[in-house]
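Human: If only I could read backbone structure tokens as easily as an amino acid sequence. Underneath my words sits a plain record pairing an amino acid chain with its backbone structure tokens. Take your time, and here it is.
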Amino acid sequence: MNQGSPRQSVLQRILSVLTRKASEQVKQQDQQPHHPAPDERDAWRAYWEAQGQPGRTEPEIDDVRQAELAQWRETIPNIEKGIYPFKGKQLSRADVEWLLATHENKRGPVDWSDESQRNRKGLDVRAADLRFVNLQGLPLARLRCGLAKDEQHSETHEATEEECIMARTHMEGATLVDALRRSGPSSCLPARSLSYGCPLRVCRYY
């Protein structure tokens, strides 16, 4: 009985392995949730929940906006010159969600419930424009929205009042419901979980 040459047998085994792997890849792709349509709000919430990011509610920003934010984020801050990554930039909730998710090379936002993370630096939005943005439910622990105490009074520089004001994030009218609750038990006190200078008095967080 002709069982074929050894070479044909090897080729058949290789073909079988490749076919099985291709089938497994297709199955994995089918199991992964697909991006919902931009106007499917409930679907996006479910999508982010499945991705382990329950705080997110907005459609993901497009590649062009991601590249723009990533480029701005590379800006090296300079307190004396008033230079900050997002100075004067108007950020949306979707922008903030993406920035939090990709914070520190995609490590993600600071988890205030994890004591080992409480010394991490949060997202730097100093001098950015977040006026009237709904930040409800976002993990904003250690958010940098002004000059921290050690930045105001360092060994090499004593920040002026003008420099402190220049560093403040514009958050007038921003909604922080639940965001502060997720940022630690004393999140209304900048010294604990938010950076100094954050103008919480003008935000809606009750």
About this structure: Residues 59-202 form one domain. DSSP finds seven helices and no strands in the chain.
